[in-house]
Write a structure and sequence with these properties.
This protein is mainly alpha-helical. About 50% of the residues lie in helices and about 10% in strands. The protein is built from three helices and two strands. It has a two-stranded parallel ribbon. The radius of gyration is 13 Å and the shape is globular. The protein starts with 6 loop residues before the first strand and ends with a helix.
Length: about 80
């Protein structure tokens, strides 16, 4: 029997996902399901910190900083 991990959304990420086109939301949902059944482990589950359309190969530094800030918020219990 496989354990399905919880998916926990930062409130900002939830709003960002809702703003994505339907096809992208569908693809994201499938990717999250794969993660739920996969090997990435965190005691709280899968933490979704940010959702945006990546248009270049390199992730902008501002996106990395935002994700780090949201991770800290979630781990500290702020969200």
């Amino acid at each position: 029997m496989r354990v399905v991990r919880a998916v926990i959304f930062h409130p900002g990420a939830r709003d960002e996902i809702r703003a994505l086109p339907k096809e992208l939301r569908y693809r994201l949902g499938r990717a999250l399901m794969a993660l739920q059944l996969g090997y990435r482990k965190h005691p709280k589950g899968i933490l979704v910190l940010r959702a945006f359309r990546k248009k270049t190969e390199q992730t902008p530094q501002s996106e990395i900083l935002l994700a780090r800030r949201r991770l800290k918020e979630m781990l500290d219990g702020g969200s």
